[in-house]
Design a protein that fits this description.
Elements: H1 8-13, H2 15-19, H3 25-52, H4 54-73, H5 78-106, H6 109-138, H7 145-152, H8 154-166, H9 172-177, H10 181-184
Length: about 180
Amino acid sequence: MSGIITEPIFLGTFPKMAEDYKLGSIQALVVAIYEIGCLIGSFIVIGYGDKLGRRRAVLVGAAIMLVGTAIQTSSTTLAQLIIGRIVTGAGNGMNTSSIPVWQSEMAPPKIRGFLVLFEGALITGGVMISYWINYGFWFYNKSSFQWRFPVAFQAFFGIILIIGILAFPESPRWLLKHGKEKEAA
């Protein structure tokens, strides 16, 4: 968001942010509210993740991220953008709470730590990609596509996550805990 919130076309779409440009409090809210969504998502996983299962929690989290991305991308008001950021953050919070657990339960002990750390590296890589996309679209200042495409691009990762998790089995540890010994074998 940091590259997007200063674009003139973005500020034209959300005039309240342009009015507050020098103070930055609304910009800070729009950027930081995502983390509140992440907190909500992690609490959802604490409460329901074990009932859902690791794979299903990731699927639900990714689906929530896609909904939030659609809300953000289609935003015409500041309130809609903020709600979209919270929803997307909730999905991401679910995933960042579920994926490392699923990985650690699935991975052989010799590579378990590497795989969990590799997820963090992928997150950092995704942030880098987002910065380069924002930079590239800074020069396209003809329409709201300048900020809508970078926001919409996060759906790509949600779709990859859904496709990827469907290719893998549920955690044997979770299956055993829920009395599904045959499926765990």
